[in-house]
């Protein structure tokens, strides 16, 4: 187990190298003036475009630029992200906690609802719960998240004014930025509780509900469907029949004997979902003006912010490797038959 | 149509109706956050350092809210100034401007303090001007002071290879002289718009503060390490403030893209009524609109004309429309020397009905034909809800030199046909053409214009083919700088309120648009240079009128519209006013307050 994990961790630098080389190779397709667009946002700057290209070395071949970037990296500098208006490493450090917090608030409900509804649907196959869950899952999934985002925003902010966009209200934001508040984890809801400020906790929660609700609606569908089909398969197995024949109570049969064995595909899917959410939920973050990493990553990509995109790409690639590793370890704990050698 | 599509359409429809029609809880609402002004718009500032910033958002935050200039625009005027950090507006009559028009002398106001409590001195003024001129980051505003003070051959502090010009420090240091509490600036040549530049770009900051925070000490020895910093945060005032203005920077939270200004209690006049001014970047219009409706935003910036109906009729919301703006955008440009290499925008590259030759637009008849073709009033009505005046040259309405009776081409199919028949010895009409008309994607106004040109041309002759193409800004820029775009939209907004700022890019052979188009008319160059030196407004105006005639005769560019702006705000915002140099609507929040 230990060596397995170590081996997978050794992959990390390799993945990072691959991703960054790929990004720099893609640069070959862009002209220097195109890349200068990041710094020339206004026609009034057009006269100075040659200087900008020279200053940022945009006319140098991609491998030279990559070498410069590597040298900076060796000094622990991921470069300046013009879209974030701060160094790339600082940008990751700033935007990631917000996304992590949002992800947790999405992931837990998605998994709980997904497992519960999926199990119910499988157990009561072709009954009302099954049809209902299928209908709900497909119709929620059928609409893109930005449509749900707008609906949620419209109803819960526009009409009811319950769940405003952003991350904190004015007063809470001023308080959080004051010296009285200690940011232990940069997860605002957690920090608020650690600081003993329940009102800040509630305020942060109020702001997270909108994007979280949107994504729970959209993301739970897949988990419901996968849990259901996986459960159906397991429920047909002989050992389930045996368990029932032994006279075990139905909840024990379902929850202990059947579901545990149905979890493998669910874990796979969940780990992908988790990493996917961490990598950024661009649309929800944009609609709810939530300062997460996905919104920044997307903006950096669109505006050709090369240090930003490279750093973001590298970070997400590493997250993916780590997420898969976590899933592998989880498999082993769920199913002892899986050997990690 | 399947069920999902129908459901989707139904929901989107409901959403649109809801967004347009529902006006929420705003009615009779009490003033929210009564001592804080909240502005929401889509762009975030690049840097808050006055020597670095060259974007409208950064200027709106800093120039007159955190900092102040030597002189300032009087009310809504752009040609009349009032003293700000200087005690008087210099003129030849009061001796502030020398008789040769080269030296401007300012007596610096006494008793003014920076927000950290230290007093303002004449030395700070000199230092600030030199710092703005000599930091000179690529793509920055330094040229706006460098060129008029050191002469128009000095647009930058570096040579073509990027090396610092050796005597640049001495020349700057000589041009700005401190004598007691006066500062005298001597220009290389008389430049009549100079005061209008100072009203926007003489942003005074504290030398003591900058030096204490590790910034440039103002000496020649350290200039090389200060000039053209690699990264914006190297500039000391990137996220700090050291100004004399009514507000000071409390925090720039780049994570949430929020800038918080707090009242400057050391202000030299009565302190501002607002305790805080908060600028929030919200990229999407939908959330911005809801924030306005709920009273969580007081002023909305960056509202497109096409979004105007969505903010109209919300209780408690005021729209101020028909605001004068010094913007000439968009205009339709034709490139006379197109780079044909690997360029699919010119089709076959020949006049064979499947393309155009690279010098297609060098024939005046082609350009005139397009000028006759486009019904510009219809365009203004369609793309700008009729808000704007017909353009007729580089100088927009509201500036000296705008020609109210300047001629332009009336839309006429017959005349367009006649011109096309004359173009390229009749070949254009007989064989037809095919090229791409580009706009930067996301710009609805330009997209509409492209579509109208296409439809008009293709309706004239079935052999005429125009593809319209929206491309991202970066690609647009890349193609533009290489003269790859046969026909395209772009525009210009005033750096300072003077015609010279417009005629150079549009019509001088070295100007950034004219150069890319390959337009060169020696008479235009001569008129532009002569008008810049001319101090008599009447004579200047005549020179610009003549230039407008050239714009009409040569028609390298089809001028479309001088736009009128509008600002959306809660009606509880009091003390608001407009100056054509304001782009965002809250550039000078000093007298703003909130109340029913």
UniProtKB/TrEMBL annotation, chain A:
The keyword Disulfide bond does not apply. The chain crosses the membrane at residues 102-123, 135-160, 208-226, 262-288, 308-331. GO terms for biological process: transmembrane transport. Signal peptide: none annotated. Keywords: Cell membrane, Membrane, Transmembrane, Transmembrane helix, Transport. It comes from the Bacteria. One of its GO terms (cellular component) is plasma membrane. Its main location: membrane. The keyword Transport applies. InterPro entries: BPD_transp_1_N (IPR045621), MetI-like (IPR000515), MetI-like_sf (IPR035906). It is a multi-pass membrane protein. It is found in: Cell membrane. Residues 96-331 form the ABC transmembrane type-1 domain. Pfam families: BPD_transp_1, BPD_transp_1_N. Belongs to the binding-protein-dependent transport system permease family. This is ABC transporter permease.
């Amino acid at each position: 187990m230990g060596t397995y994990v170590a081996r997978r961790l050794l992959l990390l630098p390799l993945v990072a190298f691959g991703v960054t080389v790929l990004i720099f190779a893609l640069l070959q397709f862009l002209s220097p003036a195109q890349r200068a667009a990041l710094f020339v946002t206004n026609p009034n700057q057009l006269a100075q475009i040659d200087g900008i290209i020279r200053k940022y070395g945009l006319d140098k071949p991609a491998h030279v630029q990559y070498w410069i970037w590597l040298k900076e990296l060796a000094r622990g500098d991921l470069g300046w992200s013009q879209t974030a208006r701060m160094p790339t490493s600082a940008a990751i450090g700033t935007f990631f906690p917000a996304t992590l917090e949002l992800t947790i608030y999405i992931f837990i409900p998605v998994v709980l609802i997904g497992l519960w509804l999926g199990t119910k649907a499988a157990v009561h196959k072709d009954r009302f719960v099954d049809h209902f869950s299928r209908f709900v899952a497909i119709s929620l999934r059928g609409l893109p998240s930005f449509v749900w985002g707008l609906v949620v925003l419209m109803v819960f902010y526009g009409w009811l004014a319950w769940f405003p966009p952003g991350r904190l209200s004015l007063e809470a934001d001023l308080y959080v930025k004051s010296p009285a508040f200690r940011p232990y984890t940069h997860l605002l809801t957690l920090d608020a509780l650690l600081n003993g400020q329940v009102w800040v906790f509630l305020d942060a929660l109020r702001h997270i509900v909108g994007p979280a609700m949107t994504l729970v609606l959209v993301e739970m569908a897949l988990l419901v469907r996968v849990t259901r089909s996986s459960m159906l398969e397991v429920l047909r197995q002989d050992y389930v029949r045996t368990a029932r024949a032994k006279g075990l109570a139905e909840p024990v049969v379902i929850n202990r004997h059947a579901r545990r064995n149905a979890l493998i595909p669910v874990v796979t899917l969940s780990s992908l979902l988790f990493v996917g959410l961490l990598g950024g939920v661009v649309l929800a973050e944009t609609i709810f003006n939530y300062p997460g990493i996905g919104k920044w990553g997307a903006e950096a990509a669109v505006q050709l912010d090369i240090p930003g995109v490279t750093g973001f790409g590298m970070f997400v690639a590493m997250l993916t490797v780590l997420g898969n590793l976590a899933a592998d370890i989880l498999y082993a704990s769920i199913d002892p038959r899986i050997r990690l050698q | 149509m399947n069920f999902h599509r129908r459901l989707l359409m139904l929901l989107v429809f409901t959403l649109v109706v809801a967004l347009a029609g529902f006006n929420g809880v705003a009615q009779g609402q009490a003033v929210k956050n009564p001592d804080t002004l909240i502005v929401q718009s889509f762009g975030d500032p690049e840097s808050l350092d006055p020597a670095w910033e060259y974007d409208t958002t950064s200027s709106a935050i800093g120039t007159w809210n955190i900092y102040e200039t030597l002189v300032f625009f009087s009310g809504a005027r752009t040609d009349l100034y009032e003293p700000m950090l200087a005690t008087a507006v210099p003129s030849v009559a009061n001796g502030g401007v020398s008789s040769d028009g080269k030296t401007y002398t300012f007596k610096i106001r006494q008793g003014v303090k920076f927000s950290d409590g230290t007093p303002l001195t004449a030395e700070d003024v000199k230092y600030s001007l030199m710092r703005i001129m000599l930091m000179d980051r690529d793509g920055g505003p330094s040229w706006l002071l460098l060129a008029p003070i050191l002469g128009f051959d000095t647009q930058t502090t570096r040579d073509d290879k990027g090396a610092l010009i050796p005597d640049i420090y001495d020349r700057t240091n000589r041009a700005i002289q401190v004598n007691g509490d006066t500062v005298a600036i001597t220009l290389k040549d008389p430049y009549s718009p100079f005061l209008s530049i100072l009203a926007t770009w003489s942003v005074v900051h504290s030398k003591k503060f900058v030096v204490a925070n590790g910034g440039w000490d103002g000496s020649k020895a350290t200039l090389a390490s200060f000039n053209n910093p690699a990264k914006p945060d190297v500039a000391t005032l990137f996220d700090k403030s050291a100004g004399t203005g009514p507000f000071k920077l409390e925090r720039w939270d780049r994570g949430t893209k929020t800038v918080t200004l707090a009242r400057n209690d050391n202000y030299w006049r009565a302190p501002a009524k607002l305790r805080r001014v908060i600028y929030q970047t919200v990229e999407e219009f939908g959330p911005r609109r809801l924030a306005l409706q709920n009273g969580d935003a007081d002023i909305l910036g960056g509202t497109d004309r096409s979004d105007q109906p969505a903010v109209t009729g919300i209780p408690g919301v005021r729209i101020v429309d028909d605001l004068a703006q010094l913007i000439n955008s968009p205009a339709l440009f034709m490139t006379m020397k197109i780079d044909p290499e690997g360029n699919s925008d010119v089709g076959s590259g020949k006049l064979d009905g499947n393309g155009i030759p690279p010098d297609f637009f060098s024939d005046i008849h082609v350009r005139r034909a397009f000028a006759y073709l486009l019904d510009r009033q219809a365009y203004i009505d369609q793309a700008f809800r009729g808000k704007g005046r017909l353009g007729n040259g580089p100088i927009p309405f509201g500036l000296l030199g705008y020609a109210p009776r300047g001629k332009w081409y009336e839309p006429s199919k017959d005349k367009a046909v006649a011109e096309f028949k004359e173009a390229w010895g009749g070949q254009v009409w007989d064989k037809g053409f095919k090229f791409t008309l580009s706009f930067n994607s996301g710009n609805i106004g330009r997209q509409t214009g492209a579509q109208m040109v296409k439809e008009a041309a293709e309706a004239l002759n079935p052999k005429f083919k125009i593809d319209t193409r929206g491309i991202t800004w970066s690609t647009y820029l890349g193609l533009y700088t290489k003269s790859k775009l046969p026909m395209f939209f772009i525009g210009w907004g005033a750096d300072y309120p003077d015609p010279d700022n417009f005629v150079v890019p549009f019509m001088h052979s070295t100007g950034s648009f004219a150069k890319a188009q390959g337009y060169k008319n020696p008479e235009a160059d001569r008129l532009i240079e002569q008008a810049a030196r001319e101090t008599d407004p009447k004579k200047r105006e005549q020179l610009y009128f003549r230039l407008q005639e050239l714009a009409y005769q040569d028609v390298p560019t089809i001028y479309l519209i001088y736009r009128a702006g509008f600002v959306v705000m809660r009606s509880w915002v009091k003390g608001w006013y407009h100056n054509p140099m304001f782009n965002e609507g809250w550039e000078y929040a000093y007298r703003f307050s909130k109340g029913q």
